[in-house]
């Protein structure tokens, strides 16, 4: 019977493609917009994602995200180091700095100041130079996308100079980082160097990165740090979600993308549902004939569900394929705004669920018509 | 007279026992059919008594709206009568319900429709094979049997053609082959010549007469095409929901 259902479905190529297009369009819109949303949320926590050496991030109690930083006095580092169960703890600076190039170009940039000794917090993926070069005087490592913004159209080479806060910096390395939420260049330097590149402040310690001793429970150590220092201490994972939650609750991003995803769902459901319904209506006589010839309602339900599943799987595959191709093309073309975005499996699963709902709605509308169909109508 | 369900059931049983021993494929007694309720109620059939015999072609004739289609729908097990008893191929119609009725139709009744009702995306042979596929026969086997049946109705060279590539007469031949593929004991044809020109209509009726009439099969043809009346063994004339006369052909 599935063969018969398939033949009926594909018999009218225009209608069949119309239904598949509806589902594919819905899938594309849902997957693409959800993936951009997830990508943006990941970007809000890009620096957290990139620093994996530490188990725990320690910050001021009042801090609500990774960008609005209340600097702490240097003594906080020693307090954290003094907590039992901490294997090591290092400083991290994060802030914004204005960068100027010799040709007069300038960009606001994200500055990351990593521990002078251990270089914990330095980028992991180097395209040119090495992390150890940060130890060179005035040395900075810049991310590749930021390099292109600061030195547009120029070949990627080391040794170029920048001016930050009237201080000279030399590019000693080019790295690859998780794209940040603001599409600013990301500049890495030593902590001590960073404090010179930024305008003078009384406190400059943004975060303390800590590692737990082997066998020590990280949530327990976080509690101990909080109790001992009065600072906020979170595991890598908790801080990531804490930051994402802030953007979810304090910005219009989820509402905006939610509306687009909902529109994708509604448009997809409307196109697929209506076309599938019309397709069934036009085939009502055929279904009536099949009923007269001895096909029971159970088999007719099976046929319609098979047809719905077939268009659902095809539309879903095309939609996800188009969404993935879109991000791949953006990546290849070097489009900075969508760099590093992809369709994660969770988005594929959500899209799959949405498509299932779309085709279920479409088939339910049609099923009703077929189930109440009197086989005697074939003689009318 | 309106029958109570118990009385109707008893009558049906008696009729069914009788039908098992005689030549009647379909027995209708006091069959009435009403549509709608209250003031909108319309009576389509009024107390029809009719026997349809094996081995002959029975034509149901009459003007539009006289109840022909309602009567064959009831005789084909597609519609329930409001009152009266029907025995189909020895089985009381009242006892055939739900999946049992669907299975009964699939196994015993063949249909030829006015508009052929072929599936446009299937070839002629595949269309003929549909009733076999419905009954669970493997597709390849069913299509092979479909091609054989097409040969029997003179469509050997059209087995791979799609309905859109066939003339009306050819499509009706395919529909006849489809109706016969299950070797049904009752063949119900609804205006098989209505959409055809005179010549094609006669050809189709000749084919029906030649290939379908069989000692173990009853053929009922609904028509108002008087050009084909001479093909019928019995002509049942209807008017206003009643049987007006029954003529037996020589």
Structural description of this entry:
Chain A has 380 residues and is α+β, with helices and mostly antiparallel strands. Chain A has two domains: 2-44 and 252-379, no CATH class; 73-230, no CATH class. Chain A has helices spanning 2-11, 13-44, 46-50, 75-81, 144-150, 191-197, 218-229, 236-250, 253-282, 284-292, 297-333, 345-371; strands at 56-59, 86-101, 106-114, 125-128, 139-143, 161-164, 167-176, 186-190, 207-212, 232-235. Chain A has a six-stranded mixed beta barrel. In chain A, strand 6 and strand 7 form a beta hairpin. The mean pLDDT of chain A is 89. By secondary structure, chain B is an alpha/beta fold. Chain B has one domain: Rossmann fold (3-Layer(aba) Sandwich). Chain B is 36% helix and 26% strand. Chain B contains seven helices and ten strands. Chain B has a six-stranded mixed sheet. Chain B is globular, with a radius of gyration of 18 Å. Chains A and B meet through helix 1 and helix 10 of A and helix 2, helix 3 and helix 4 of B.
Provide the helix percentage of chain A. 40-55%
Which fold name fills CATH's third level, the topology of chain B?
Answer: Rossmann fold
Nearest-integer average pLDDT of chain A: 89
The level 1 CATH classification of chain B is: Alpha Beta
Count of folded domains of chain B = 1
User: What is the number of helical segments of chain B per DSSP (H or I, 4+ residues)?
Assistant: 7
Number of strands of chain B: 10
Largest binding interface between chains: A-B, 26 and 30 residues
N- to C-terminal separation of chain B? 35 Å
Strand ordering within the main sheet of chain B:
6-7-8-3-9-10
What are the salient characteristics of this protein?
heterodimer; A: 380 residues; alpha+beta; elongated; B: 250 residues; Rossmann fold; 4-stranded antiparallel beta sheet
């Amino acid at each position: 019977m599935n063969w018969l259902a398939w033949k009926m479905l594909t018999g009218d190529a225009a209608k069949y493609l119309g239904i598949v297009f509806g589902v594919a369009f819905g899938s594309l819109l849902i997957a693409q917009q959800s993936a951009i949303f997830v990508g943006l949320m990941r970007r809000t926590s890009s620096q957290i994602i990139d620093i994996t050496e530490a188990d725990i991030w320690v910050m001021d109690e009042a801090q609500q995200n990774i960008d609005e930083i209340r600097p702490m006095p240097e003594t906080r580092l020693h307090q954290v180091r003094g907590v039992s169960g901490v294997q090591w703890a290092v400083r991290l600076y994060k802030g914004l700095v204005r960068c100027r190039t010799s040709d007069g170009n300038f960009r606001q940039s994200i500055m990351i100041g990593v521990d002078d000794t251990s270089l914990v917090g330095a980028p992991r993926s180097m395209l040119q130079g090495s992390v150890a070069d940060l130890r060179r005087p005035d040395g900075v490592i810049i991310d590749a996308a930021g390099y292109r913004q600061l030195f547009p159209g120029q070949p990627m080479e080391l040794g170029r100079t920048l001016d930050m806060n009237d201080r000279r910096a030399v590019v000693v390395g080019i790295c690859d980082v998780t794209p940040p939420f603001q599409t600013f260049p990301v500049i890495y330097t030593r902590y001590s160097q960073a404090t010179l590149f930024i305008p003078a402040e009384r406190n400059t310690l943004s975060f303390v990165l800590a590692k737990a001793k082997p066998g020590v429970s990280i949530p327990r150590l976080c509690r101990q740090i909080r109790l001992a220092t009065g600072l906020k201490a979170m595991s890598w994972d908790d801080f990531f979600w804490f930051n994402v939650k802030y953007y979810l609750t304090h910005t219009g991003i989820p509402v905006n993308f939610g509306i687009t995803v909902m529109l994708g769902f509604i448009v997809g459901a409307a196109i697929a549902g209506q076309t599938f319904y019309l397709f069934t209506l036009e085939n009502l006589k055929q279904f009536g004939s099949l009923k007269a010839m001895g096909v029971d309602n159970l088999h007719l339900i099976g046929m319609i569900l098979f047809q719905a599943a077939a268009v659902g799987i095809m539309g879903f595959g095309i939609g996800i394929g188009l969404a993935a191709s879109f991000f791949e093309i953006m990546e290849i073309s070097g489009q900075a705004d969508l760099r590093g975005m992809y369709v994660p499996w969770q988005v594929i699963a959500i899209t799959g669920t949405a498509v299932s709902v779309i085709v279920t709605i479409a088939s339910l509308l049609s099923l009703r018509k077929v189930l109440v169909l009197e086989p005697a109508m074939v003689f009318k | 007279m309106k029958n109570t369900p118990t009385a109707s059931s008893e009558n049906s049983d008696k009729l069914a026992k009788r039908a098992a021993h005689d030549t009647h494929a379909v027995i209708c007694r006091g069959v009435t059919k009403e549509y709608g309720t209250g003031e909108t109620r319309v009576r389509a059939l009024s107390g029809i008594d009719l026997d349809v015999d094996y081995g002959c072609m029975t034509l149901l004739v009459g003007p539009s709206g006289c109840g022909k289609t309602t009567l064959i729908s009831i005789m084909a097990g597609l519609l329930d009568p409001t009152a009266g008893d029907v025995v189909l191929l020895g089985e009381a119609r009242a006892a055939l319900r739900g999946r049992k009725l669907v299975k009964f139709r699939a196994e015993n009744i063949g249909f030829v429709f006015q508009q052929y009702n072929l599936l446009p995306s299937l070839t002629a042979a595949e269309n003929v094979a549909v009733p076999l596929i419905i009954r669970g026969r493997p597709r390849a086997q069913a299509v092979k049997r479909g091609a054989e049946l097409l040969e029997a109705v003179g469509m050997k060279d059209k087995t791979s053609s799609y309905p859109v590539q066939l003339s009306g007469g050819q499509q009706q031949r395919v529909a006849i082959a489809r109706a016969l593929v299950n070797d049904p004991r009752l063949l119900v044809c609804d205006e098989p010549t209505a959409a055809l020109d005179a010549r094609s209509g006669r050809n189709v009726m000749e084919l029906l007469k030649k290939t379908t009439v069989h000692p173990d099969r009853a053929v009922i043809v609904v028509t108002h095409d008087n050009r084909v009346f001479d093909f019928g063994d019995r002509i049942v004339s209807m008017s206003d929901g009643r049987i007006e006369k029954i003529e037996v052909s020589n």
